Amino acid sequence: MPSPRLTSIAPPLFVVIWSTGFIVARLVAPHAEPLTFLLVRYALAGLVLAFIALVARARWPGSARSWRDGLVAGALLHGFYLGGVFWSVKHGLPAGISALVAGLQPLVTAALAGPLLGERVSRRRWLGIGLGFLGACLVVLPKLGAGVPPLPLGVAVVGMLSMTLGTLWQKRTGGEVDLRVNAVIQYIGAALVTLPLVLLAEQRRMELTLPLFAGLLWAVFGLSIGAVGLLLYLIRQGAVVGVATLLYLVPPVAALMAFGLFGETLSLVQIAGMALAAIGVYGAMRPT
Known about the structure:
Blueprint: H1 4-28, H2 34-55, H3 64-90, H4 95-103, H5 105-117, H6 123-140, H7 150-173, H8 179-201, H9 210-237, H10 240-245, H11 250-262, H12 268-285
Helix pairs in contact: 1-9, 1-11, 2-8, 2-9, 3-7, 3-8, 4-6, 4-7, 5-7, 6-12
């Protein structure tokens, strides 16, 4: 049985840690190529989690089907999603547009959860999803630029759809495997997708600097182990629509972090958007 305390703190803790991903991306961008950085992150996180699973004597799946399910989930949740986001931003997609594309995920998840998983999405939950999306739009509104390059935009959309399908796939197939073992298999899947792209499209540049080491350390332990572990836990415990709706809180929290760490300004429109996103997520997350 899951701990009631963990169940209550997991959603806000996930949002806070997941939001630091934008800070890490900004920190390491001058020092490493994006896909190369992601490949190293997947490899290190997989090795650490494999060691933890072996020490804990966690049970590894014995069927090819379980391995396949984990590899597919990793390719979708990490490989195509993070790779698509990092690549599109690197090639000129404004961060605000990228955030708006990511904000479509709860809407798409809600539309697909019924036919694919049999989850019922109530009117109140749809209202919460709509309010959350509107709030997220207001948060990123001041950062929207005029130029939107079509190819990076398309890649970002593919990444968003990949995250959506990965969430649904994980909910449907990942209920029995130990979460630590499941994450290891997922990072293998993510690496299998990312490695050919690194070899084809990048020079594998990683500068050995303090910001890079700090960003990589947090990306491995905070994001790839902490945040992703919480995400897998939340998917296992609850409806995927509610879990996806939590992502509406990521732009507001990331904006607050950028305000505190980098001195970025916050307008009244953004503050209103943060409040609206929080109201929408609260409504969507309440049990139906």
